[in-house]
Recover the amino acids of this structure.
């Protein structure tokens, strides 16, 4: 039996092993390329979550979230338009305590922020919508679940206790829409958000180029299998070479009546950009509207939502709540919208970058950063509650 090794001998052998091992080289190599990823607590603004989320996602999933349609003019304009609004500071206004609470559609909320419905969350984080609900709940924020969420609505609802709204695409299949509405009622969702601005599938070039490079989002892979099956059935001819896909081309405002007959929940119409459509929404019995250009993912040359918000608020004239989304990344952006008459603001990509960077903790942190920035902006404008915010807080200089 060999004699037991002394400690000195063992260390000697380890040193010999390491000296001849490629492991040591690997360590030096990785040090040479080292880049430090900041920790959750180090991030100072919602904008800083995007590069971290990007580093953790495939390029195609990143492009799916970050991108807009065509030349992305509206995507840039959604952000740019906040620069055309200035806030009016008011010192000496007694703002010891700033209260963010509000009520929308009879639902008390900790702040006027909500998480917007977004599909494809599993491409951002493995637990996608489930994790998003955990983060939103931790920040006491209502989450609107996308109709095309990757997880079943019941699983998302069971993951946390915060309030949910349920977004609806009627697509070409009203039966599926009705089932979704029933599920939303069963799991306790507090509102149905009917998205009306997706008549046709939009052509996002970033995704087409990614697909040409062999990359697939989960949805893209499924769509491709289905397209191949259809093409085989046609003897190999591509069925739809330019990707022209109607989604809801035959729907009109009458459909709101049908939806109304299916559910007692409030119905929020999402995707309006003009006063004319806001009037139609009110006349058709909508309970609220969301001024939205779908994060610039459908129409390439539309106004920024913050530019059209005021004409819609004026038209609606307090009859129903007006919410808005599109490009919101700062608390001051939110205050500008509230000053122009919005009742609430939905966050799409900001919440997704939080999710991608740090899961539920990232979502919570993004929402809390925005709540903090909103508190600060309100204090500097001399308002201590959401109810006190009015048009006098902003000057607009839209082109
Ligand atoms: C990745 C992604 C997926 C989206 N999916 C949906 C969806 O399923 N249903 C919907 O009504 N809107 C969807 N939207 C639009 C958002 O609800 C919201 O209108 C938009 O993201 C707001 O702009 P922002 O991302 O600049 O905040 C999606 C947006 C993104 C970025």
């Amino acid at each position: 039996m060999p004699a037991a090794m002394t400690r000195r001998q063992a260390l000697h052998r380890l040193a010999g092993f390491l000296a001849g091992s490629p492991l040591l080289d690997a360590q030096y190599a990785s040090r040479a390329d080292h880049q430090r990823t900041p920790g959750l607590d180090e991030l100072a603004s919602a904008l800083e979550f995007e590069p971290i989320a990007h580093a953790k996602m495939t390029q195609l999933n990143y492009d799916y979230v970050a991108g807009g349609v065509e030349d992305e003019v509206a995507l840039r304009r959604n952000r740019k338009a906040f620069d055309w609004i200035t806030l009016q500071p008011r010192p000496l206004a007694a703002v010891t305590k700033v209260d963010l609470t509000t009520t929308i559609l009879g639902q008390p909320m900790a702040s006027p922020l909500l998480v917007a419905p977004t599909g494809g969350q599993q491409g951002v984080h493995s637990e996608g919508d489930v994790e998003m609900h955990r983060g939103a709940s931790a920040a006491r924020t209502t989450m609107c679940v996308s109709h095309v969420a990757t997880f079943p609505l019941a699983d998302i609802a069971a993951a946390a206790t915060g309030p949910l709204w349920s977004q609806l695409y009627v697509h070409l299949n009203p039966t599926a829409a009705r089932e979704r509405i029933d599920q939303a009622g069963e799991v306790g969702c507090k509102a149905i958000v009917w998205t009306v601005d997706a008549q046709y599938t939009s052509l996002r070039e970033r995704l087409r180029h990614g697909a040409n490079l062999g990359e697939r989002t989960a949805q893209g892979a499924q769509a491709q299998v289905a397209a191949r099956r259809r093409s085989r059935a046609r003897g190999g001819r591509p069925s739809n070479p330019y990707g022209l896909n109607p989604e809801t081309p035959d729907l009109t405002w009458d459909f709101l009546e049908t939806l109304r007959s299916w559910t007692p929940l409030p119905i929020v119409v999402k995707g309006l950009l003009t006063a004319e459509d806001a009037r139609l929404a009110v006349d058709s019995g909508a309970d609220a509207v969301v001024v939205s250009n779908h994060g610039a993912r459908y129409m390439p040359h539309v106004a920024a939502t913050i530019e059209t918000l005021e004409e819609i608020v004026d038209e609606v004239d307090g009859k129903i709540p007006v919410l808005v989304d599109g490009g919101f990344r700062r608390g001051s952006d939110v205050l500008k919208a509230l000053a122009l008459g919005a009742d609430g603001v939905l966050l799409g990509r900001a919440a997704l970058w939080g999710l991608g960077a740090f899961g539920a903790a990232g979502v919570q942190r993004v929402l809390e950063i925005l709540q903090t920035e909103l508190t600060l902006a309100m204090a500097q404008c001399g308002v201590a509650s959401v109810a006190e915010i009015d048009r006098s807080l902003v000057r607009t200089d839209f082109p």
